[in-house]
Amino acid sequence: MTSRALGTGVVLAVTLAAAVVALPAAALPAPAPDPHGPRADFNGDGYPDLAFAAPGATVKGFKGAGYVGVAYGSRNGIKDSAKRVFTQASAGVPGTPEAGDAFGGAVASADLDQDGYADLVVGSPGEKIGAAAAGGGVTVLWGGPGGLAGGATLLTGEEYA
Fold this sequence. Notes:
This protein is mostly beta strands. The protein is built from 1 helix and 9 strands; from the N terminus they run H-E-E-E-E-E-E-E-E-E. The strands form 3 sheets. Strands 4-5-8-9 form a 4-stranded antiparallel beta sheet, with no helix packed on it. It has a 3-stranded antiparallel beta sheet with strand order 1-2-3, with no helix packed on it. A hairpin with an 8-residue loop joins strand 4 (106-110) and strand 5 (119-124).
């Protein structure tokens, strides 16, 4: 009887192990949310950085052109001395500032290119598309070892008649 009990125990152990391995990801418990909210690390130093926006700001004389910025974190918290501001007139950022663009009208962060650095996604709801309409646009500023730099246009609205 001992060999039969041992055999049954082995079969149960293998069945349980196979069931655990085969569980879909949705069945696994989700990680607990960070009590401090989502954190973005644009320069990869291990400290959260703070993105901010002023979509109604005047840039190069264009009212409401808008800007976004980042204040980099440190062991002692956010360093105001390490902040940078980005507009559509900044090197590497696509587009040009125009009145009413509202660059920074929405911001979000994610590691879009999966390089280990958070990227900043910037909405411009008033971005002009073509000669007549404000169709909106979405731009990404890429994170990297030196922080945010350069960018690319992700989406633009369409001009409608």
